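Hey, can you fold this one?
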Amino acid sequence: SCSQKECRKRYEREHGKRWCFDVVSPYRSYTLQAESEESFLSWIEALRNAIEEFQQTQKLRVQEAQQLARG
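Sure. Predicted structure:
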């Protein structure tokens, strides 16, 4: 993981494109390019929030399953 600035600088250096980011899953990877820095930052924030929400949901499901297993 890296900060937004570090990721952006690394991507620009490696690919020569601005405001790009990768969305990586176990099955597919996508490289997306925002139209502006503001849009880029909004996308990154939205993705981080979605990941955090997903992780919290998974954590709750595990806790519920553990409680059900205990009877």
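The mean pLDDT is 83. Let me know if you want another pass with a different chain boundary.
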